[in-house]
Fold each of these.
Amino acid sequence: MPGPTTEPRNGRRRVAVVGVALSDCGRVDGPTPYALHAQAARRALADSGLDRSVIDGFASAGLGTLAPVEVAEYLGLRPTWVDSTSVGGSTWEVMAAHAADAIAAGRANAVLLVYGSTARADIKARRRTSNLSFGARGPLQFEVPYGHTLVSKYAMAARRHMHEYGTTLEQLASVAVQARANAAANPDAMFRDPITVDEVLSGEMIADPFTKLHCCIRSDGGCAVLLAAEGYVPDTAKAPVWILGSGTSVSHTTMSEWEDFTVSPAAVSGRIAFERAGVTPADVDIAQIYDAFTYMTLVTLEDLGFCAKGEGGAFVEKGRLLRDGELPVNTDGGGLSACHPGMRGLFLLVEAVRQLRGEAGPGRQVTKRGGRLPEVAVASGTGGWFCSSGTVILGR
């Protein structure tokens, strides 16, 4: 297939998402993580309508000793541009930002981002005992010996927000309730039965104030996203979704270096992304936000500018996050209900693109007044314990 035919504008090309797909997700006991990578990659390429020969860039993290070299080899790719950035759940938004910049500058033409994990199946089969270990070396040596787990760090931050702003347990629980309601119409979601605020509050305590339903699920699954230069768009199978702008930021790794537990690095990455995209939070129709815990959704909404700092509790409790709400958030059910195989950030981009294309399906597709499709979406990933953030603005 010939290369891009559209000349760069002012030295930079526009960049589109031209293909997205999920692998099998949820409870997937047979395939290896490599197989899930391959399945998602094949499906995303088929979704784009392009030939695999156009792919000259590849991004992957979380699998293999030499990621992304091992995964690229497994897929039969020989890329000339690669990225193995690994910053937790925000990895994929950061990688998308890197890939978009590379394509815009002409250093790559089509970049495939792909992820796959059998986190749930591995634990069930006792191939490992935990999803993830950050070890106890370096700065973490000052926290790990005292039982300061990942979930406890998020829990501490949530408690601080409650102390500073009066945020309530019921408000945090409402985030989980709305995520489950959004998952109800998603056939790919792992959990679809409705839950109530009382059920969230009465669940097993994991790390105060988080009960089990405040925390993301454990699943298997993978997904892939193909970004390409604008010159390929005429040959794609579907209408493009454009990368309008992106921003990245890192904050801290030790809690003692986190200046304010109530402010995440999305406050920086979001501001940069909106400025580069030339839009504001008021222009956004849907938001896909990393939600390993309910507090993540609440504080990220504040930091992206959808409500003022400290007003996240009041914002989320009024049903605004539902598919037909004021700001539909995590319309697939998110990590709290749909799927969370590990570094979930790439799933945010897949869902944002499907919603903008109008492909979410009956009972799940977001529409604007008059039945029009959404036009602008934000995908914001968080890594570590609010250590990093990547925000991508997409538009039709």
Amino acid sequence: MKLINHTKVLKHMKPRIISNVFFRLLFMAATIFGLLILGILLYRVITQGIGYLDLQFLQNLPSRKPEQAGVKTAFIGTIWLMGVVAPVTLLLGVGTAIYLEEYAKKSRFTRFIQVNISNLAGVPSIVFGLLGLTVFVRALALGTSVLAAGLTMSLLVLPIIIVASQEAIKAVPKELREASYGMGATKWQTILHVVLPAAIPGILTGGILALSRAIGETAPLVVLGLPLFLAFLPKSVFDMFTVLPMQIYNWTGRPQEEFQGVAAAGIIVLLTMLIIMNSIAVFIRNKFQKRY
């Protein structure tokens, strides 16, 4: 200890300590600022919309009169959309992840696929809207139907589910696979009965978070040309429909001041759906996550 010159140590450490304190305060201020803006936004939405939020609002169809306007068409349309997006993305996403992690050989081609999947996760959502408009609406002549919108939104969130599923499969210990092979199981039996059950919490968590993003996206649906005002419910995946973000966008553009409160009530409904889905994702992760 006598060989250490504490004066020189403190002299060299002082700038680092000051820098550490400065950046800690800077990051804390940025976090507080973001939370403050979010709190103000939530306060404005809740105070404006809580007066319009009641059972009648959930049961009524859209109307040109703010006191009679409801969210039923958009709410049911959102459920229809998720009914298409969920099975398509989970089947394709999990299947792709299983192939890339368990079957595909590590080569330049697989690395090329991995890089492109990661890049697609960062592509602006409006680009997927243009792709859906070209392929599903015009080339396949599906129009502004539930199926066309569902396939477009599936392309949007598919990279997220693939990446989440790959990470969940990677997290399964190699010892479990080797034990299954040692018991005489085939590769597919090992994947089906050992790997997937252990990876399900991570897969479902990523899937629910991806579906939450799909619920809140508006840009691709605007590009597809979904109607802003629709006074009937869809009966099949080939019918026209609308969703909560589109309905909220329509209300905010109305000249009557009362529609601003109606739009705020619609935002509360949408936020409630997102909070419930994210809460389910957290519950699944905490309930079924296993420690190896």
Amino acid sequence: MKKGNLRSSALLLLTACIWGVAFVAQSVGMEYVGPFTFNFVRSILGGLVLIPCIFFLNRGKKTEAEKISAEDKRAQRKTLLTGGICCGIALCLASNFQQIGIQYTTVGKAGFITACYIVIVPVIGLFMKKKCSPMIWLSVLLAVVGLYLLCINEQFSIGYGDILVFVCAILFSVHILIVDYFSPKVDGVKMSCIQFLVCGLLSGIAMLFAEQPQLSAVLLAWKPIAYAGIMSCGVGYTLQIVGQKGMDPTIASLILSLESCISVLAGWLLLGQTLSIREGLGCVAMFAAIILAQLPAKES
């Protein structure tokens, strides 16, 4: 493995660890504040944390920036702003569907259902005229079996929270593809900062209409919000953008999907949540689907 690929893989693995534990923070935070309030505060906090990082990282780039023409600078700013806004909208939708859904399901189940994006990413690629190998279709079948075991109960009904988290997985797939498109063209940390501020602004608007935010409740939830804001947002999503640069989006999504396994461990260790045998088999099927989706196709 090339040194650059190894570095990118390590960054994405660290991201998966941070996100896996963040499911616990998100679940605990719901005991104090509403989902839009939680995402508003965490996203704004994540964006603010990155501002000093941007100034620090850009100190050595001033000489290079002076060589670029004014027209190129405007084009770069336009691409950066467009990428940040698109990422922010996708992130806002995905994170709020996830945050609402996690109130009605366990941390472990939410982690594995969210990890469906590993299968959804290549399927969405079909609409972008990218071919899918037979292994992809087998992984889709396994993912459907895994979702059935995880989500469908004995009464053949699916939980409300599970549906919301599955929608979140689709939206995160879109987010991954947007990041893949823009990350090679712009400064990853700057785009990450913009996406958080956009996500926070949109979540804040929804908060004002759907919830009754109270500062006292936010202060009570400061620990899970701080972890979700600083680590999951400020550190995690930035590592995703930096780590994904130059990486195949499907391989990147495989590494990121390890957050599902970490979420189960974190839910068990920190919250005492366990899965039934049926749900455990669903997790095994889902993880098999994740692995199969990444097997290289045979060259014709």
